[in-house]
Design a protein that fits this description.
Elements (H helix, E strand, L loop, with lengths): L1 H13 L7 H16 L13 H14 L1
Length: 65
Amino acid sequence: MAESFFKSLKTELIYGNKLITKEQMKLEIFEYIEIWYNKKRRHGALNYKTIEEFNNQNDIYKNVA
């Protein structure tokens, strides 16, 4: 899973990005992970749900048991 994440990070964010400062790149990576990857990007391993949707679904099942 980690290899898949880093492949996505490099493909979707790093490759083709203009040369920017280290601080700007840190901010870009933070925003990619916290805003795009965790909240909006759909993941095939999670039945094409976002991480938030998947976690919310699991919370519902925890309350049932």
